[in-house]
Structures are given as structure tokens and as C-alpha cells.
Write a structure and sequence with these properties.
Rossmann fold, alpha/beta, 12 helices, five-stranded parallel sheet, 5 strands
Amino acid sequence: MNFDMNPAVLCGVMLLARCVCGCTTATSPDREAAAPVIRVACLGDSITGGAGLQRPEEDSYPAQLQRLLGRGWEVRRFAAGGATVAGYPADALNEALAYEPQAVVILLGTNDAYQGLPNGRPAFELAYEELIGSLMGLASTPRLWLCCPPACFRPEVKARLADEVIPAIEIVAARKGLPVIDLFRMTRSARRRFPDGVHPDARGAQLIAREIYTGLTGERRRMKDRMGDYWRWAIKERRLY
């Protein structure tokens, strides 16, 4: 029986084998492990933690932000129920610092509004600047985004948010040259998404995640390329640690 193969067919088989080997190499675990990942730390109170949700691990805003960002990003939450700007728990902050993120989203201020800023706005601003300073000193040189808290549908707290807390956050952001993600104006007409008047339901958390996604990437909706110009530059220049 003659097993001679037509040269053209043989060439095609060899090319196919080479492609298969190349695909196997490209998707090897070692290659995937070496791919750069942008670490995102979400600092906040029970809103960030997903209080009131049946599945906070899946429906909290950080979890939904992870799904929006997709591969190439790793989102972790370092939330503490009842946290304020001046009273952010040391254990949660130390865990966030140890994570060495490249991006940090801070969503605080609701509990400060509940307390009525007992030490006044200057003390609030100073505490916020100290928190920011501890994060900006990391070797990973993270980019920071400050969030105006979502609307609270308890009249006295909502008023303090609008009149005291949010203006203070905007002042701190201007001093430090940091971007602000305004969740307050975006949610002030979304009463039905906050069952207890404070914490968002899964759909409300999705609204928050989308707004923060836009802040991080500059994209209003999900796109095939989610990295954004800055993050591509950072990876190319090996600015991710």
C-alpha cells in the first residue's frame, strides 16, 4: 500500500500542526499567569459591602463592577459596615494597603452624614486627606477616584449629604487633583432602588457599578476594549507592580 503524500497536502498538514502547537503554547497556564492584571480596591461602608442584598458576593457593586470590567481586572472590596471617613477601621485599611492596588475607589460619607459631621467640615476634609495620603504612598502608585455617596432617602441625611458631605468631598478632590464620581445626582430619582432608603438593591448596585465603570475606563457602556488609554500605557511602560 502506497503512503506517499502529495507535497501540497503534506505542507498543509505541517502548517496545521504548527498552528495547533502555537495555540497550545499561547494559552498555557504560565502565559495566563504572566498576563498583567489591574488591581482595583473598593473602600467603603455597608453600601460597598452589599448590605441588604441576598447575594452580596454576586450583586454588590464591586462584584458587578468586576463583571463589567472583565478579564485583565481584579476587583476586591474592603468594606466595613458603619465606616466613616475619620473612623475607617484599621484592619480593612491595612488589608487594602497590603493588596497594593493600581486603582482605588473610595465610597464613604453616608455614615458621616448620619452623624452630622460632629467635628465639622474641616475635620472631615482633613481625615479624608489623611486616608488618601496613606493610599497614595503605596509603591503601586494607585490612581484614586472619590465617590459622592448615592442619595439617601431619609430627609435629614439626604440634606446633610447635599449641603455638607458632598461639597467637602469635592473640595478634597480639587485639592488633591483627583476625579470625582457623582453617584448622588445619578441616584436621587431612584428611590425604588433603595428599599430601606439607604442601601441599594441589586439593580441599584448595578447603576452604581456602571457609573464607576465609566469613571475608571471613560466608557459609557461595555466595549470590546475595556482597558482605556491610560491602562494600556501603564502596562506597556511596566507601570503596574
